[in-house]
Design brief:
This protein has 86 residues and is mainly β. The protein is built from one helix and five strands; from the N terminus they run βββαββ. The protein has one helix spanning 57-60, and strands at residues 3-7, 9-14, 17-21, 71-72, 80-81.
């Protein structure tokens, strides 16, 4: 992406063409400094990881977690967790 224009919606300009979108997420990781004005509009987010012993089906059944989908507290992206294959 080389440029972002806003005219009610967003217009994202790239070397290969232009994309129009209603919303844009800037997922820049360590490269935010390349976008002028973005510094004052971002919020740092921390992460952590915790592992337990493998849970049994009996432990998982009461909460209804029979798949490997992730779960998130979307109010402020505070908590996110998911099962792993092991």
């Amino acid at each position: 992406m080389t440029e972002v224009k806003r005219n009610g919606s967003f217009e994202l300009v790239t070397p290969g063409g232009t994309v129009t979108a209603e919303k844009v997420v800037f997922a820049t990781n360590a490269y935010s400094h390349f976008f002028k004005g973005l510094k004052r509009k971002q919020v740092p987010a921390g992460t952590y990881m915790q592992a337990t012993e493998p849970l049994t089906e009996e432990q998982l059944e009461p909460i209804g977690w029979d798949g490997y989908e992730g779960v998130e507290d979307a109010r402020n992206l505070i908590h996110f967790y998911r099962r792993t294959m092991d």
